[in-house]
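Request from the bench team (R.T.):
"We need a structural guess for the complex before ordering more S-adenosylmethionine. Sequence and SMILES attached. Just send the tokens back."

Command: build protein-S-adenosylmethionine structure.
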Amino acid sequence: MTTDQFWNFYWETRLQYLQGQGKGEVILQASRLIRKMNQPARILEAGCGEAQIIGALVDAHGNPTGKQSSVGIDRDEKALVVARQHYPPIRFLQGDFTDASLLQSLGQFDLLLLVNALHHVFSDAYDPTLGDIDVPLGKANVRTSFADLVQTIKPGGHLILFDGLEADGSPETKVQIRFKNTDAWQKFQTFAQEYKPFRIHFSLIQDKLVELTLHAFTRYVTKIIFLGKPLWERERHESYQYFQEEEMRQMLLDNGLVIQEFQLISVDYDHWLQEVEIITPNVLFPPEHVIITAQKMR
Ligand SMILES: C[S@@+](CC[C@H](N)C(=O)[O-])C[C@H]1O[C@@H](n2cnc3c(N)ncnc32)[C@H](O)[C@@H]1O
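Reply to R.T.: structure attached below.
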């Protein structure tokens, strides 16, 4: 068995439970990068949660010891209790990954993982008086936080960023969609009432046929899988999207990163097709996730 065959088999058997969320692809890409390094990688995961990603990678590929160990940061202490139980070789810190002085105190890393993390920085710019996210502030906060996080990557080291991506085109583009059954139509109405970061407006054109903006449609398709599940209470307060592709690419370029892969993935496409049909010609389902691998210039 070649080394690549071994790792394909290893991850195929280990990743089943993560594939549905697209995170499996992050682990595969990170594993390929780490295997090219001649020693265990020093990894930082900002917003690591229960450490499914950094933990799986350290389990498989090892960890530098002592002060050089890999680090996971999260503000949620409950998640870190679980992470520490499962992955003792990793150092887990409770804190805010937007805190530049905390990041500076950690030294430098071979690999920075930002997996479903930066959209929280954007969502945190929710302004109760606006009843919406303060978009310019949210975007500025993402850029500032990203610049500080990139400082932790060694020259020649890598970044893997996984998050939502705003669809290309004007967010105000009108889209007509038809719900394929009563259940889907009712779920959409609950979503429109309960989703918090941006107000979701729509006009009813005919039975189960509505018109809404591309901006609202994007939120609907990427959030609807959470409705009725325990995660909905958290997910309904977050905007998964903040940048279009050009803005994302520019942010990496501005911080001295060379993009090696820029991949759009949609794992829930089949589910969307069961619920809704796009009536407006030439409008496609938006991308669900973006996964970017980039290298910091030396
Ligand atoms: C959607 S979870 C992703 C967890 C993990 N990266 C994964 O994909 O399995 C996002 C995590 O980021 C954490 N988080 C969000 N904003 C943060 C901040 N400013 N500082 C530290 N942690 C933060 C949350 O507490 C949450 O655990």
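Two things stood out. Residues 135-150 form the longest helix (16 residues). The radius of gyration is 20 Å.
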